[in-house]
Amino acid sequence: MGFFSSKKKKSSKKEVIPKNADGTPAVQTTKIMEITIVSVNNITRSTDVVGKIDPYVMMYGNGQLLGKTKPVDNATSCVLNEMFVIKPKGDPRSIQFKFDLMDKDDIGDDDEVGSGAFNPASEESLSMQTVHLKWKGQDIGSLTVDIKIKDILVV
Questions:
Q1: How far apart are CA 66 and CA 95, in angstroms?
Q2: Lowest mean pLDDT among 34-38, 59-63, 103-107, 141-145
């Protein structure tokens, strides 16, 4: 036996990488949604006796609370730019979104200012969409939302 030889021969196991029909490596992906509540726009309804509302947004997907933004002091229009990331169970465009605009109160319960809905399935583009808010059938302003559907790698 030589200096560099060994009695035991190592078996070489080759890792099998799945391939697509075209020969490229197959990777598993899943879809996520990035929902950004960009801004609150021109709110005309006030629930405060003194000053402006302190708005924040509660976001629901198919009736489930997905998140809420931080309140902004004394504003009828403001930029929020808060992003929420979700992984839908099925088709991302099938999720029905509801947005409740709330007024943060230091004393007592927070007040609902208005609400609006957004159905991604009925829209060609999900970028920078206006969600009209209503209170008792009356328009009270809007939200701007930006939704991106992305494929991410599963590892």
A1: 12
A2: 103-107
Q: Give the largest CA-CA distance in the chain.
A: 95
Domain range annotation of the chain: 43-153
pLDDT band, residue 57 (cuts 50/70/90): very high
How many C-beta neighbours within 10 Å does residue 45 have? 20
State residue 67 phi and psi, 5-degree precision.
Answer: 165, 170
Confidence (pTM): 0.82
State the Cα–Cα distance between residues 73 and 77, nearest whole angstrom.
Answer: 11
As a CATH number, domain 43-153 is 2.60.40.150
Tell me which residue has tokens 């991604």.
120
3-state secondary structure of 120: helix
C-alpha R_g of the chain: 25
Q: Which two structure tokens, joined as six digits, stand for 117?
A: 């809905």
Say how far apart CA 121 and CA 117 lie, in whole Å: 12
Report yes or no: 116 and 130 within 8 Å, Cβ to Cβ: no
Nearest Cα to Cα of residue 85 among 32, 9, 28, 145: 32
